[in-house]
Amino acid sequence: xxxxxxRGEFLVGAAIGAGILGQAAEEGGADFVLALSAGRFRIMxxxxxxxxxxxxxxxQFVKQFASAELLSxxxxxxxxxxxxxxxxxxxxxxxxxxxxxxxAGIANFPTVGLYPAPMRAALDxxxxxxxxxxxxFAAAHARGLSSLAYVYTTDQARAAAALGVDIVCIxxxxxxxxxKGLPSEISVEEAAAHSREMSRIVVRENPDAFFVLExxxxxxxxxxxxxxxxxxxxxxxxxxxxDRLPLAxxxxxxxxxxxxxxxxxxxxxxxxxxxxxxGKRIGLAGASRAMVHVYExxxxxxxxxETMLVSGEQGTGRQTTVEALHALSGGSPxxxxxxxxxxxxxxxVMISLFGRSAxxxxxGLTGLAERDDIASIVLRGLEHIPxxxxxxxxVYMERRRFTPIGGRRSLRWGxxxxxxxxxxxxxxxxxxxIDRGLAQQVEGNEIHLPSLRDRTEDIGELLDGxxxxxxxxxxxxxxxxxxxxxxxxxRHDWPGNLPELRAFAAKLVSSHAGxxxxxxxxxRLMSGEAERGRRRVASERDIVLDALWRHGFxxxxxxxxxxxxxxxxxxxxxxxxxxxxR
Amino acid sequence: MANLQIPxxxxxxxxxxxxxxxxVLRTGDIVLPPLRRAPGLPAELSGxxxxxxxxGDLLLAIERMSHCLPADRPVIGMFAADPFLRIDQLxxxxxxxxxxxxxxxxxxxQYGIAFRPVLNGLNVGPAREFKAxxxxxxxxxxxxxxxxxxxxxxxxxxLAPAQLFVVPSFDLWCDGKLDxxxxxxxxxxxxxxxxxxxxxxxxxxxxxHTGISPMQARNAxxxxxxxx
Lengths: 582, 228
Known about the structure:
The structure holds 2 protein chains of 2 kinds.
Chain A: H1 2-6, E1 11-16, H2 19-27, E2 32-35, H3 37-43, E3 55-57, H4 58-70, E4 78-82, H5 91-101, E5 105-108, H6 117-125, H7 130-142, E6 146-151, H8 154-163, E7 167-171, H9 188-205, E8 210-214, H10 221-228, E9 235-238, H11 244-269, H12 272-281, H13 289-301, E10 308-311, H14 318-328, E11 336-340, H15 346-354, E12 355-356, E13 365-366, E14 376-380, H16 387-399, E15 401-402, E16 411-412, E17 416-421, H17 425-430, H18 436-442, E18 446-448, H19 459-470, E19 480-481, H20 483-491, H21 497-511, E20 516-517, H22 519-527, H23 540-550, H24 555-562, H25 566-575
Parallel strand pairs in A: 1-2, 1-9, 2-4, 4-5, 5-6, 6-7, 7-8, 8-9, 10-17, 10-18, 11-14, 14-17, 19-20
Antiparallel strand pairs in A: 12-13, 15-16
Helix pairs in contact in A: 2-4, 5-7, 7-8, 8-9, 9-10, 12-13, 16-18, 19-21, 20-22, 23-24, 24-25
Chain B: E1 8-14, E2 29-32, H1 43-46, E3 51-53, H2 54-64, E4 75-78, H3 87-96, E5 101-104, H4 116-121, H5 126-138, E6 142-147, H6 153-158, E7 163-166, E8 173-174, E9 177-178, H7 180-196, E10 203-208, H8 214-219, E11 224-227
Parallel strand pairs in B: 1-2, 1-11, 2-4, 4-5, 5-6, 6-7, 7-10, 10-11
Antiparallel strand pairs in B: 8-9
């Protein structure tokens, strides 16, 4: 590692808990591996924080898996994550054992630094605090072992560097992100400010020490790069970022790909692919079983001229379907009329459909049923039409003749009626929202459009289609969704169906043009939260931090920019803890 | 008249799996596996360190424990926030031996209030403990609930506890030792809450080596006391 540093290489350590991960990290270029109880707990399905609980004897736990799985498989140095939180522990005996087993070094993990301040004070007072961890490092050095100190405060960093610890790692707390991560307590910008100050302290105390980072808001290499631009750091240690986050993502992704493969195979193995192509031609999308059934029904009724009921929630494509039915019967868009029953009274529906005779007092009105330029009539909101009006329509349909309101002469009925309802026929009947006679006439002639949550396998294709339409002129602006992000979308209820999905696609394109979209980003967009990374400059603390950033942490220029003295700026940096945790 | 009586002394019984436990456990005993105690730190706080497997050791200890007599109700202290705790397994072993009383002891609430959001956020916090106790109650166990902060009293009372254990937390650490005044204040607050909730659950104060006397505990509303 010392040679790597001389060459100016950036060190990467993998804090992990299983042999396969050690091998994979080494293959990726890891310079060293840390065998930590937290890593093992992650592999077992718990959160890293489980390593702080009385659920295993930490040192025995690490010894068991690390000896068997890491020492035998890794060629890079392996550090032993040792806890001094056992009051009966002899650091000398532990260091002996670690050296004997063949570990290259010792790290203080889990460390008292991860506990809250009152607890740290108590543990210090009873002799199992940070001072005992320092004693363990001294014992490690005496046995020719390397040392890696996790530090949280400037005092700890100073003490570790002064003792001659080889690697000083500032830990920003539990890693953010994923299902077993917490929101970070600090931002990337704050982490950068802390790192800069801590690195100064470490280098001042021990110029030969490596200064590395881990945890907190650093979830990906871009965020690490942001910190590297400001602070002089020699490397990074990845725990959850190297195993939990990518592992969960890739396992979930691969599983989903297999599931998708099965769906595609089903479509391609039958004539259903032909139906899917038919669906696309009439303006519907999706290859799910439910949608294939829809296409099949539409095709069966195309050209039939029969009365139809198209049911489904709003936004499922009902209007597109009735337009397709009309078009497939040879009708042009101009010969399709729509009556919105939900927005008008039963009387108005009757007048719109059948007209009104002039003898009623006012002027006469010609109903749609009488107009020669209309071939099909769409009645939206069937369930809103009063039952007696529905019954009258049913009678006219059966007799193939109708009488305008107030008229005496019956006329021939020759139009096709296409009903749209929010619920399937079965539900309308059960809830008494449809006339029995009308129900009999449309029975067997129903096309039920599934809601989006009932055909989640189509969400990927539908979203792709929506994004493609929005980025037609610039394909590079298309965001790429991770498998877990897609899983999150599939779990959403989509109460607004297709319009909601299209609105989501628009938000996605505007906030993540050309970028990768993870599960957290989807969650935030769904909940309408502000875009990631957008810093709000509100409090004085934010203003000072923002100014430091703008001026590359140059205190003189920052003070001049803020219109305050260097001393005042220094005091504010201390007051707001922009130099590291107390 | 109960508050004029000297609080009942409860006993912390540490059962080591390595040694055969011939003594019959009695009502008023609180049974725990070895806690690896740090000198100067109360036993239950020492037991929170990641240097032991509380529930694993407890299962081994149960194998060594004699059968519980029907008239006796010793309380078994488990670490209820353990993400690997198999409630069915532990409940089954306890029931086989005739034990019917459990408590969340030590409790994650004892780490202190600042650690709570982290633990709850990662599903190993007080909420998980209360859920585990609720599951034991559903299996027919009587649950005693440890409370280390006033915020824990309402959810504890909602479990209709057999006892309320008032336990110290690291938040009560002051000037190199546990603050007895803070512990007594907490006990008094718990007693007030209990009264408002019309609960009759006895309060047992874990006084440790704070120097709290049984009379002080009584004045703070405790019905029982655990001394070192």
